[in-house]
Amino acid sequence: MSFHVDAWDPSYGASLDASAPGPSDGLDVEVELPAEQWRPLDAPAGLAPPATVLMVDGVRRIDARIWTAGIGGTPPSPGLACSYAAGVVRCGAGTASVAAATVERSIFTSAADQSDVDAGSTVRYKAVRIEGAQDADLMAAMQTALMQLEQRTTSDVLTTLSGGDELVVVDGPLRGPGAPPRVIGYAKTQQKQYLPDHLLPVVGALSPGQRTPVFRIGGRWSRYTWYLRQPGGIPIPWSGVVRLECSAELAPAQAIELAELSCVTLPRYASSAVKDPRAPQQLVPIGGLEQRLRRMLGDTKLLQRALAAASVRQ
Question: What is the DSSP string of 148-187?
């Protein structure tokens, strides 16, 4: 018997989840190559990375759990006081800078009479009422609010682009159909096996900087996708493997072009295990952006005390 230790920090879950094997609905593995010709692919010789890469990410946090007292003897309603932020980091010419960053705060609750809460002179939690919501529903609402903030932040930045060779990398899978042509999703963890068993060895055979052929998956919406191995992993199957995806509304040739660009772009930003517990899948600029956004969320204990003080005033 042999086993391998995953270098991925276990506090972030597993980098590979093999609990849901089997191909995806709407699977088409012959977008780029016939199935019998599948093999690890290198970027075309001489292909240059884009001059500008924009990376998008968001963070969220529960600041406090609250209960809104019922009226007329009705039971109190649960709620979550949450802070969440999204931002964009611009990379180019050997530098990286934050191009946009926004913080929002909300109270997600099933209470019909919950009002907005001022927690200090500059902090306001907007009440978001969800009828009949339980804890899982409130958590889902918080995640949805973060995704919507990421989408708005990305859209705002996209309007400022020159329309040249910029590439936009969204941390995580794409949030829905209709992503712009130069936007790709970057999934660090593999929560589902999308390929049939006979093609999985191609993923394990990838060398750093190599990718699989582009294929198409379905589900709630269709998208093109491919696997790429980042440099710096340990020499075992799937170590350092990420999955990229782009809109299925693109022509196959456009998706293949994005896949080729990912090979010459993303390995340059792979993190080191010395500096990041999610290396090498975590992108260095994304790690820096996350740290910036978490600082912007503010001190949890101070916010908890401010919320407690606000509850006394109401």
Answer: HHHHHHHHHHHTT--SSS-EEEEEBS-SSS---TTEEEEE
Q: Burial letters for 42-56: b for 16+ Cβ neighbours within 10 Å, e otherwise?
A: ebeeeeebbebbbbb
Cβ–Cβ under 8 Å, residues 56 and 170: yes
The pLDDT of residue 20 is above 50: no
Note the residue count of the chain. 314
Task: Please compute the mean of the pLDDT values over residues 24-33 and round it to a whole number.
Answer: 89
Contact of 274 with 83, CB cutoff 8 Å: no
Q: Which of 9-23, 34-48, 234-248, 273-287 has the highest mean pLDDT?
A: 34-48
Question: Do 145 and 84 form a contact (C-beta atoms < 8 A)?
Answer: yes
CA atoms within 13 A on the CB side of 68: 20
| Cβ contact 145:166 at 8 Å | no
- Look at residue 22 and give its three-state secondary structure: coil
The structure tokens listed for 256 are: 């293949």
Cα separation of 256 and 105, whole Å?
39
Q: What confidence score (pLDDT) does residue 155 get?
A: 84
Cα separation, 309 vs 123, in Å, equals 13
Cis (ω within 30 of 0) for the bond into 23?
no
Strand order in the sheet with 183-187: 117-118, 124-129, 95-109, 77-92, 53-68, 167-171, 183-187, 241-247, 223-229, 215-217
- How many C-beta atoms lie closer than 10 Å to residue 224's C-beta? 26
- Cα 310 to Cα 314: distance, rounded to the nearest angstrom: 6
246 φ/ψ angles, rounded to the nearest 5 degrees: -145, 170
The neighbour count for residue 312, using CB atoms within 10 Å, is: 6
Between β-strands 167-171 and 53-68, what pairing exists: parallel, antiparallel or unpaired?
Answer: parallel
Task: Please spell the DSSP secondary structure of 92-120, one letter per residue.
Answer: ETTEEEEEEEEEEEEEEES-TT---EE-S
The pLDDT, as a whole number, for residue 175 is 83
What is the tens place of the pLDDT at every residue in 77-121? Answer: 899 999 999 999 999 888 999 999 999 999 999 988 889 999 888
Output the pTM of the full model: 0.88
